[in-house]
Amino acid sequence: MIPLGIGEIAAITGGTVKGDGTVMVTAPAVLDGREAEPGGLFVAFDGEHVDGHDYADQAGRAGAAAVLGSRPTSLPTVVVEDAQTALQSLAADVVARLRGRLHVVGVTGSQGKTGTKDLLGAVLSSAAPTIAAIGSRNNELGVPTTMLRADADTRFLALELGARRVGDIAALTDLVAPDTAVVLNVGQAHLSHFGSRAAIAEAKGELVAGLAPGGTAVLNADDPRVVAMRALTDGPVLTFGRAAHADVRVLDLRVDRLGRPTFTLRTAETSVPVTLPLVGAHQACNAAAAAAAGLAAGVPLEAAATALASASLSKWRMELRPLESGVTLLDDSYNANPDSARAALDALATIEGGRRIAVLGAMAELGDASEAEHRAIGAYAGSRADVVVAVGETARPIAEGAGARSVALEDNDTAAEWLRGHLAAGDVVLVKASREARLDAVAAALT
To answer: 69 near 43, Cβ under 8 Å?
Structure first.
């Protein structure tokens, strides 16, 4: 974050300083007091269950210099009417000051956002100082806190933008119009909120519509709903994917014994070989998206390929870990929807070993289609795994879809106990569910 006096923050946000008005904020803004850095800003919210203002002392012990909140605290505080609005205003102001030397890339899609953002961060970092969103901080609070990590040395800012309803991404592009907009796909994530795939496409298209003047849209050539978004911009468009007409095309895709993809990225000018240290053939198209966005930002394809070869993903996303027991764990427990579940099951099927065991929990926010979608995933899992373990009541249709090779278990503790009693050396275990299912606890129990 660029250094700002607490009085200047108050002027930007329309707030009032309570406490020492000479304090300088020199480190990023955080929403969790435990994450505060020396000289940082703690943003306090008065939530339904927890009042963040009560944690000002905790933030201070971690090094926070000041608080942005709706009432005074034990630290110097900028008191505002609405902390969320103030946080967003501050982020927009800071990025606007940096914009002359800062290239902003936004990434959205129904699945693969975080992984692609991670790959993009690696590509951009190979060329110049880059700030990329941490994990899946992609909402009305996560995006501005990422923006506030940028400083005078930052040349690239990679943002992940999520949505639960039409208008969410437009509100985020109002804070910062991206120079490059990457749209990965239009799937079924959050279908219960949107109501239809058409509404999801409209929401994802807001990123393209929100481009800065002359900005580049990077679109998935394999998804017709995404390709149609070229009509939303008068600026340049780059496409990626396996389609013959893709500007950055994935060719010669294959995977090794651990499911890690090797392929060629080809443009009209050149082609480069790429080997990813990640699991899953689907990562190739994510890498193509990152490389295409890199081209739009001035990173040569050769440099992107080199960066991709050592890239890594955020926690609980296709993490492949050998365990002391001889079992191989594929931990993809951070989130799930039908499309990402199929991709993870495809990856499981490519990993060499003994039995392939799919431990699957609930996929949230599928609305009226939930039972049918869970049953369909069960049937698909039955074609990809030797054993399918469905965890929790919502996931029970997965077991029904998988048939004789399935087992339905009540909760995470029961699943962990069952696995400990049934796994053998050589088995490969996939753990996958939506975040609310907390199947990371099952993965952790195995390690």
So the answer is: yes
